[in-house]
Amino acid sequence: MDRVNVRTGAGVRSLARIVARDDGRGGTSLPVLESDGPLALRRTRATGSGARVMLVGAMSGPLGGDHFTVEGRVEEGARLSVGSAAATIALPGQAKGEARYDVRLDVADHGELHWLPEQLISARGSELYVTTRVELAPTARLVLREEQVLGRVGEEPGRLTSRLTVRVAGQAVLDQELACGPGAPGGWDGPAVLAGQRAVGQLVVVRPEFAAEPVAATVLGEGASLVPLAGPAALVTAVAPDALRLRRLLDEALGSLPQP
C-alpha cells in the first residue's frame, strides 16, 4: 500500500512497515508491506526460504524537518533481507530544525534478519539525527550494516548524529552514538575518531553460537577492527576515504567470520 504525502514547510512524515512470517511451507510470507510518501517498499526475488525487500526513495530527502520511520518485524522462523535501491542523501530543506530517520527492528526466536541498506550521505547544510534500535529474541540472528559518508565529492559534510542500539533477550549488547560535522563535539575528525576519513561504517552480527564461542578481537587491515560484544554478537567498525573502500572493508570482515 502506497500513499503520497505532500511536502510542506513543516516537513514530511513517512512510515514504512514490514512483517515477515514463516508461511508453514518452508518459505517466508510478507503479510504486512506498507509504505507512504518518500518511502516505498518493493518485494524482489529472493533465494532460499527467505523474503527480500527493497526500500526505494520515492522523493528526495530526508530534508530539514522531515521525519522518516521504518519498522520491521521478523516473526518466529521467518527469514528476511532488506536493502535499498540507492544511497540516501540528507539535504538541507526549507523547514527549520533537523530531520529524523528512525529504524525499529524486532526479530523473534529462530528468525533471521539481514539489514543491508546503501550508504547514508550527509550533504552540506543538512542536519540529520538517525536512530536504529534492534530487539532480538535469544535465538534470533542478525546481520546489520550501517554506512555513513560525510559529504559528496569535494563537499563539506552536514551535521549527522547516528545512534545504534542492539538488545538480545532484553539485554543491551551495543549502544553507541557518533556525531560528525559542523556543531558536533570537538574531536570527531581527529585521530581518535575518524582521523580525517570521510566514510564510517558498522557491521553487527548476532548468532546464538557466539555465546559459547565468541569471536576474537582482531585488527582487519588498515581502518577496520572486529571485537566481540557482551552477548552472542560481534561488531566490526571501519573508516575509509570513500564509500567504495568502506564497503570493501565491511564485506571482507563479514567473509572472515566463521560460517553458520
TrEMBL record:
Its main location: cytoplasm. Pfam families: UreD (PF01774). Keywords: Chaperone, Cytoplasm, Nickel insertion. Transmembrane segments: none annotated. It is found in: Cytoplasm. It comes from the Bacteria. InterPro entries: UreD. Belongs to the UreD family. UreD, UreF and UreG form a complex that acts as a GTP-hydrolysis-dependent molecular chaperone, activating the urease apoprotein by helping to assemble the nickel containing metallocenter of UreC. The UreE protein probably delivers the nickel. This is Urease accessory protein UreD. The lineage of its organism: Bacteria, Bacillati, Actinomycetota, Actinomycetes, Kitasatosporales. The gene is ureD.
